[in-house]
């Protein structure tokens, strides 16, 4: 993971780059068939990047505050004992990276195509190449896919992540195809998403950490107040989730009663000196452009 982080460079102009859309690479078998329960259980968690201080900069552009209201379907939970909609909208992201099966986390969000999953940039592209066999499994439960395995038909990353894997813009999106004639959020519901909002807020982070001491079988959460990430435009919070949690949603205005909230960042990286802190990218103008590109696909 450090190879990618060490190659980070400052972009001359974020606005000069357009969003990149990369179709999910086809394999011999469709990802929905490829990801058997055995392969899901054996998938290696993708490590959380460790960012050197030199890679963190205050460069994220902002625009007008924008919020898309949530669309939720309450449901019971598993390891997240609060239950509610998050149990269905959150899930594991599976893919093949450098010849090995790996995993991250993601969350279905309100979108025009009813098929958009928000995750981290390194969960769709890493070390210069986009992942293959990409699939989203909402409500994953120890190899079981109660709402099916949703095959990606396109993956997206911010232009900064596409160009240089800049940790400050570690944001990705997955657009999944229909399953049994239905769209993703018609089946599992969707959470709201927000951009260009103040950074400090009471926040809940979710994911499927699979590196020790976790095993990837359960939806795990952290909660607390976010703080400004020093030396960058990201945000941080106290959280000990590990690899595999990458890409999991950060919610503001989260209701424990309904399991609904507004996605405002994702699990992204940690700093060696502060292992009990998790950092996420600020959802500014580039994140909003990425979301709009994905929901239009």
From TrEMBL:
GO terms for molecular function: serine-type endopeptidase activity. It comes from the Bacteria. This is V8-like Glu-specific endopeptidase. Residues 1-29 form the signal peptide. The keyword Nucleotidyltransferase does not apply. One of its GO terms (biological process) is proteolysis. Keywords: Signal.
């Amino acid at each position: 993971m450090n190879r990618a982080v060490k190659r980070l460079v400052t972009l001359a102009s974020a606005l000069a780059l357009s969003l990149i859309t990369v179709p999910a690479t086809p394999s011999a078998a469709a990802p929905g068939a490829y990801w058997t329960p055995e392969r899901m259980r054996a998938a290696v968690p993708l490590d959380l990047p460790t960012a050197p201080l030199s890679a963190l900069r205050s460069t994220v552009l902002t625009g007008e505050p924008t919020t898309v209201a949530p669309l939720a379907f309450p449901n019971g939970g598993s390891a997240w004992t609060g239950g509610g909609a998050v149990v269905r909208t959150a899930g594991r992201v599976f893919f093949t990276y450098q010849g090995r099966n790996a995993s991250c986390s993601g969350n279905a969000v309100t979108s025009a195509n009813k098929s958009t999953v928000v995750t981290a940039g390194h969960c769709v592209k890493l070390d210069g190449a986009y992942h293959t066999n990409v699939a989203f499994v909402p409500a994953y439960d120890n190899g079981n896919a109660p709402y099916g395995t949703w095959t990606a038909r396109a993956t997206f990353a911010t232009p900064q992540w596409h160009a240089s894997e800049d940790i400050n813009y570690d944001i990705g999106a997955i657009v999944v195809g229909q399953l049994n004639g239905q769209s993703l959020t018609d089946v599992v519901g969707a959470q709201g998403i927000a951009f260009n909002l103040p950074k400090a807020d009471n926040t809940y982070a979710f994911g499927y950490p699979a590196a020790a001491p976790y095993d990837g079988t359960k939806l795990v959460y952290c909660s607390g107040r976010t703080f400004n990430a020093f030396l960058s435009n990201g945000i941080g919070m106290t959280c000990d989730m590990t690899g595999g949690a990458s890409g999991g949603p950060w919610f503001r205005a989260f209701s424990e009663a309904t399991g609904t909230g507004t996605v405002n960042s994702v699990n992204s990286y940690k700093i060696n000196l502060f292992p009990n802190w998790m950092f996420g990218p600020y959802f500014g103008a580039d994140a909003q452009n990425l979301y709009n590109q994905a929901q239009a696909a």
